Structure formats: C-alpha cells, structure tokens
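Re: S-adenosylmethionine structure - here you go.
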Amino acid sequence: MNSADLITRYDGRVPRYTSYPTAPHFTPAIGPERYLDWLRTLAEDVPVSLYVHVPFCDRLCLYCGCNTGVVRQEAPRRAYAALLERELRLIADTIGRRQRVSTVHLGGGTPTTLPADCLTGLMDLVRAEFVLSPDAEIAIELDPTALASDRLEALVDMGVTRVSLGVQDLDPSVQAAIGRIQSYETTLACVRAVRGLGIDAINLDLIYGLPRQTETSVAETARSALRLQAGRVAVFGYAHVPWMKRHQSLIPEESLPGPQARFDQRAAIGRVLEEEGGYLPVGLDHYARPDDALAHAARSRRLHRSFQGYTTDAAPALIGIGASAIGCLPQGYVQNASAVPAYSAAIRAGGLATVRGIALSSDDRLRRAAIETVMCDLQADLPALARAHHADPAPLLAAAAALERFETDGLVQREGGFLRVTEAGRPFVRNVAAVFDAYLNHDEATPRHAQAV
Ligand SMILES: C[S@@+](CC[C@H](N)C(=O)[O-])C[C@H]1O[C@@H](n2cnc3c(N)ncnc32)[C@H](O)[C@@H]1O
Ligand code: SF4
C-alpha cells in the first residue's frame, strides 16, 4: 500500500501515549489527600524520578504547545522558585525519609528563566531531601537564544549531566513564520558552551509540519543538526491545537503542510539522520547515535516512555513538581493545577496543588504495559505481558484482533499473540498502541489530540 493510502487510512487523531490512561482521562476524583496517601506508602527501595516544571519563557513561540507563558520580571520567577522548594519539602516530609532519586529533569517552558541562585538552590534542596543515585541523570531543557552566562555556569553547580536544546528548524523563513529566530551560529555557540562545561550528553529537538517547511528544507535543517553531533535528536510532528493553545491560531491553518507533506518531511529528516549521520531510529520519534545509551536501551528492550518522551530511566515512580506537573506513583497518576496562580495559591496555603489524576485498575496496568511495550520496542508478546501481570491475556488478544487491517497493510506482523511493528509501521506506532486503549472512542476521531502522522 502506498503512503497516500496509509495516511488516508490512519491519519486520525491519536494520543502520543506518554502515559496510559492519557491525561484527558484524569479526573478531580484524585486530589491532594489521595496523593499524600500514595506518597506515604511509597516503598523504601523504589527509586523515583523527579520532574520540575518551570512555566516561564522570555518569549512565546507561535507553535508552542507547552504549558508556559512570558514572564520577564525577576520577582515572580523567584517567588515561583520558592514555591517549588516548598512543594518539594512537603513531598519529602510526607515520604518521611530521603528517597532515592535516579533522574531529575527540569523542563518547561524554559527552566533557565529562573535566576541562577534559584536553580542551584533547588538542586541543593533535592540533594538534601533525597539521595541522588551516584549515576543519576540531571537533565535540563535549554533555549539556545536565551541562556545568560550565569545560568550556564549554574549548570555545573547543579551537576547537570544532560541538556536538551530546542532547535525546531534552522531555515530563516520558517523561523519568521513560527516566531522563533535562532541562527545556526547561536545554536552552535550554545552546544560549544555546554560541551566546554564538560556536559557531553546533548539532545536536540526538531519539528516538522511547520509553515513553509518542505522536504528539502527540513532535510537541510537535519544536515545542519548533524554538524552539532548531538547524541540524540527528537523529531516531533507539529501539534496544531489552537483550541487548547490560542496563540497557535496566529499560524494560519492554510499555511500548514498537509498529511502527505508531513509524512514526507518526517521521512526526509529520518533519511538524513540515519543515512548521512548514522543515527538509529528509536521508538516513534527519537534518533540516537549507535553508542548512545538510548540506542543501547532500544536494542536491549529496556527503553521506557515518560512525559519527556523516550528515556532509559526505569524508575517506577515519578514525582512532578510545579504547575501542571504530572506524577506517577504505583497507585496511579496525579497532576498539579496548570495555571500558575492556582498552583501558587495551593502551595502557599501549605498543601499540595493536585487537581486531577486517576487510580489505576488492573486492566489499566495491563493495557499500559502493552501500550508502553509497543511504543518502545515496536513489538510485544501479549501472553507474556499478561503472565507478568498475573492477568488473563484475553483483553489484550481481543484488542489485538483490530490489528488485522494493519497486518494487511504491511504495518504489523503477527504470530499468535506476538506482534511486531514493521519499519513501514513505525510512523503509525501510536495507531497500533491505540488498539489497546480502552478509553479511546475507536469509532470516532477525537479532536483532543494532534494528528497521528
Ligand atoms: C520546553 S521546549 C524546549 C526548551 C526551550 N523552551 C526551547 O524551546 O528551546 C520543549 C520542546 O517541545 C517541542 N514543542 C513545543 N511545542 C510543540 C508543538 N506544538 N508541537 C510539537 N512539538 C512542540 C519543541 O521541540 C520544544 O523544543
Ligand atoms: S518552544 Fe520553548 S521557548 Fe518557545 S514558547 Fe515553548 S517553551 Fe518557550
């Protein structure tokens, strides 16, 4: 089947499955009390990952789908950092001991909008209240156009081991259309500065499906990205969700490449990264150099999927700090208030800012395992997954029956309860995972998610 037919057939709107159940299914039934209970029962030997959300930027990129806003004054930035510390202390006090932490990720927004002393103070607090594993990864998202020298120096004091740089696209006309001017030289200077600090683990973010992008232009951006020699490159499809992110309506719908062009752009970036750069594809949308830990994890089926995308971090619990941050404990998911005023009010009142979440049923856990395995390994042994969950494989096998048309279309191969997503199926892996999603209305495309392709 050719790509045009595949796109027509599979370009519905499906979740990215950074969690299961996905965030739209979280409800107010889970609030601070439940979260506090869940934290109190966290097992001692369970390592946790910490995610810290900073919802501030110096500017607002028109395409941005993140929970962020422009805040330029120092006072609200400092006030927010103080609230993060308060939330962190309350969580550590509730756990009642210094829990082991395997990964710290500061994301946003742009975490380096916080003053340098706030960033180092926050990491000092993490070290005081938790026990960082000796090989802990401390990762931070950076905007190469907005990185003051004191923030750069702070990365060393913080013990940062990995940085993710937003690049998106290096073509000036695309950058003008998306309100993000960032020359190759600025990006290169940032990469060099970070390497100069001894931080060699570098991720780059690219986006396709933006206005004025063509197959040729995105291939050129990918070629420039190769020169930066990052260990990992994430290649995201532009998620145009103006009903959720009003500023995106400044990008006219008619300026966006259609599904076929998006598909071709994604393929063009992949070709450059794989054939010219020697990167290996990882999961749905990541590429890693063969010697990178992410590529190793993919090969040995130890890859995991988190809210930041693909990761080597196997911690079974995630604690999210800050506005909109999501946490995941063995019992289920929790999410903080998204708006900074609501988050601030809750923390100032001395409590947690949890406003929604979901307790996991055994069926959720089983389906989550199938979805994560498909998204990470591009294959799944359904009876083995069910056995590992002491569960009946019947619900998974029944759901997998919907894969018949995927098989006919060459996207999936099946043998009994074993399924493998083919290379042709990789761009459609979310659609494959979606057959196991009991919450998705399978008959009707829901407009709450972005396009599949
Ligand atoms: C928090 S930002 C990265 C750090 C920093 N704020 C920056 O932009 O350089 C996270 C990444 O999400 C991606 N992103 C943001 N909005 C998106 C959208 N609407 N569709 C797809 N990817 C998006 C971009 O690749 C961006 O680099
Ligand atoms: S892409 Fe990054 S810098 Fe731009 S608005 Fe979003 S979070 Fe801020």
